Amino acid sequence: MSTATTTAPGTGNQPVGAWTPLRRPVFRALWLATLVSNVGTWMHDVGAAWMMATLAPSPLMVALVQAATTLPVFLLALPSGVLADIFDRRRFLIQAQLWGAAAAAGLGAAALAGLVTPPVLLLFTFLIGVSAAASAPAFQAIVPELVPRSELPAAVALNSLSINVSRAIGPAVGGFIVAASGPVAVFVLNAVSFFAVIAVLLTWRREVPSSGLPREPFFGAMRTGLRYVRSAPDFRRVLVRAMAFFFSASAVWALLPVVARDRLGLDATGYGFLLAALGAGAVGGALVLPRLRRRFSNNRLSVGATVLFAAVSVALALLRQPAAAGIALALAGAGWITVLSSFHVAGQTSLPGWVKARGLSLFLVVFFGAMAAGSSLWGHVAASHGIPAALLAAAAGLILGLGVVPWNPLRAMDQGDLVPSAHWQPPPVHAEPAPDRGPALVTVEYRIPAAGTAAFLGHMRDLEASRRRGGAVDWAVYEDVARPGRWLETFVTANWLDHLRQHDRVTMADRRLQEAIMALCEPGTTPQVEHFVGPARGRSTGAMTSAPE
Prior knowledge:
This protein is an alpha+beta fold.
């Protein structure tokens, strides 16, 4: 790997190299175990795709194997992200890995018994995908727990590298095993590979964060996560860009088995080596990516890589020589890792720790949802109009998708912005309200000179987004008609406990924003904060209405 290093923000001149996170024992052990497990997964993918091509040699049925792999993440990633944020992520991951091992072993047993039909193969592939859906948000969210903040980008890149190293190894090994012994062997080996991750997780003594507040309820936590994303424009841009790319890029992955068999005349071993070429290209791309990042922004890299991937789609539609197709797929791998890494770093660095698994689960929903929908569509197009037509249409879709770039630029935040600041003082109370008492209303009074009004209102737009990200369900700002320059900000949470959670969620970026607003206040004045809650249960509410959701 390249020995290029970068200097992390906040670490002075201490360089962070591409391999630095592997010095951390738990990260290193989990990285190696995940590599083994990913090799097993890619071996399974080769065996499942080739078995389907044998059982039902139709482009649509082969593409449905890819859809069955990705659909569980689309359906279950968000609930899994919620669970990973509110429960112990280590225990949750162990249970998810045990599920995957059981499902993979079940497919192996069914294959040994000769019971595998196309529906059975799709069912077990879906069940294995459930394990991936449960694991993925938690795996991504624990990375900041395993390495210091300064090493996070390098750790994210290493995780992407692990996936692509396994892609270079797994398909080739899987194709060889399928050709020599049949798909059953790779199904059994995949089941065994899950236990590498389980063993590391069992030895990891994770320190479970504790805020002193009760655990969020499941549906409340899901609403909070969705509300956060709605008020986080940087993260929303990542989702839009991901949807535009992965929907069309899925054609290469979904149709590659039939390209290998029908257009290139290859067997299972040849198909495995095509996937290995793609994985090797991704590894090569990861090696040069740090150097490219010093010269180009995430935006320019992702756009260039998208154009490269589109060109490869065109090449695969036209080429009939396996060697040329392998070279094209190596270039596709380099483009794929560049786009995926750019999106993932931008998403990872735009989420604070308390909502990280939920936010990343939405990225996975978009990623796998686009892959599943695209795989099904391109399979239909290939079945109706031929493989070349589907690949050419997908290439056109990739280029058209670049139309969203000007309105959705990628921006990686300084992770220091998202560190909890704990600068809100505990609210003064006569007697602590019941946690579920609500709604809770907070008012903040500001005195702003006329000259500072425009700047104040500009900051308040950003403050509204901050309040809503933290849990506010309603927000407004008003000026006193009798005393110009006296402004009242109001925001509402569903109950008192949700407001207390806001105190835990404010970040250094929020603190700097509030300091900028305070600097605009009239000399000698400071914002005046007051707290109100709805009547306790059992009391008459009179004409009081509840806060809007």
